[in-house]
Amino acid sequence: MQSFFVTIPRVLGSLPFFALLCMVLGCTGSKPIAEKITTDDGKTLEAVQLALNWFPEAEHGGFYAAQVHGYFEEEGLQVEILPGGPNAPVLQRVANRELAFGLANADRILLARGQQADLVALMVPIQMSPRCIMLHKESGITSFEQIRDLTLSMETGPAFAQFIQQNCDLENVKIVPYSGSVAPFLSQKKYAQQAYVFSEPFIAKEEGAETTNLMVSDLGFNPYASVLITHSDMIAKRPDLVEKVTRASVRGWQHYLQAPEKTNALIEKLNPEMDQEILEYGVKSLKPLCMPEPVGLKEVGTMSKERWETLIAQLEQLELLKPGVVETDHCFTTNFLEDIPSVDLGKADSEAPSKSPADQ
Predict the structure, then answer these.
(1) How many C-alpha atoms does 79 have within 13 Å on its Cβ side?
(2) ∠ CA(177), CA(181), CA(185), 5° rounding?
(3) Residue 259: enclosing H or E segment and its boundaries?
(4) Which of 5, 185, 18, 235 is nearest to 115 (CA)?
(5) Distance of CA 332 to CAs 93, 235, 337, Å?
(6) Burial of 217: CB neighbours in 10 Å, binned 0-12, 13-18, 19+
(7) pLDDT per position as a tens digit, 64-102
(8) CA distance 6 to 138
């Protein structure tokens, strides 16, 4: 089984963030950040856009679930979810006020803030980083300390890769550029590669390979993933809109983690490369990442100051951030996570709108 999503590396190009930001500063979108619209059935909704950091797949499931099951509409919103891809300028467009909302991983948010980008995290669906190093199970390697005498396919620029290189001996390990394909892994036994735990391991398994997946979070580098972001002007001028989008997103994720079927049907329709089998595998892999103990369903979306402080310190140690440039309190807010009614799945499914985007 071939998947488009694992043939394109999830890494930014060599162009630094500031240069990319400068490229888009002169490109202001003509569409308003939020505008009132009237639907075909006469409802008045506020239309906004939410930009993904990658192509639609399970890691975005909760946001699509908020669409499919009407949580955005309950808030009086029509949210257009914009697919991403390699080098999608989500951070730049949100910081430049071209978009109200976007998704990004926590380390990318902090690195952008280090370049003076105005970005604020609102909620975190994926608590534990899905980054992993995928090895052949028959290698017998079960920890990062044991990685030696093999080829490691990994981009060296991203923060997670620099953290691995700084904290592991990697004795007699040859690091080669990551191509995004599992083909070299399948053809070479002394071979490992960077991966997302809900993606490449599934492809390898489909091709008959048994894998061991070492989570980078177990090594101590654990940025939040698929973080919902906005900018400070939106929070100051439209806190009502921020609250509605955040609340609906949290409820969407609560629903998706319990009953992903209808949402997965939409994701497959939007992106046929993501069939039901890989999406089911993705949700199964995501559940412990979204709800690691003691996080329960009611706590989906939460963040802690300690986690952000730890990540800032790690990026400073890696010399990716200048010390003191990024202040923790400016990076995130939990003000919009209070008093969100938890989704009662037994009722939520029966109360879902009869016509979802997947059915249209």
Answers:
(1) 31
(2) 80
(3) none
(4) 18
(5) 18, 11, 11
(6) buried
(7) 999 999 999 999 999 999 999 988 999 999 999 999 999
(8) 23
Residue with tokens 């629903």: 255
Residues in the chain: 360
Neighbours of 229 (CB within 10 A): 30
Q: How confident is the model at residue 347 (pLDDT cuts 50, 70, 90)?
A: low
User: Is a pLDDT exceeding 70 seen at residue 15?
Assistant: no
As to burial, measured by CB atoms within 10 angstroms (0-12 exposed, 13-18 middle, 19+ buried), residue 26 is exposed
Cα–Cα distance for residue pair 8/173, rounded to 1 Å: 24
Give the C-alpha distances (Å, rounded to integers) separating 231 from 37, 48, 68, 113, 235. Answer: 23, 14, 26, 11, 7
Q: How far apart are CA 178 and CA 155, in angstroms?
A: 5
Q: Looking at the predicted structure, is the pLDDT value of residue 19 above 90?
A: no
Q: Which domains does the chain have, with CATH numbers?
A: 4-128+223-359 (3.40.190.10), 131-219 (3.40.190.10)
Predicted confidence band of residue 52 (pLDDT cuts 50, 70, 90): very high
d(CA 108, CA 140): 33
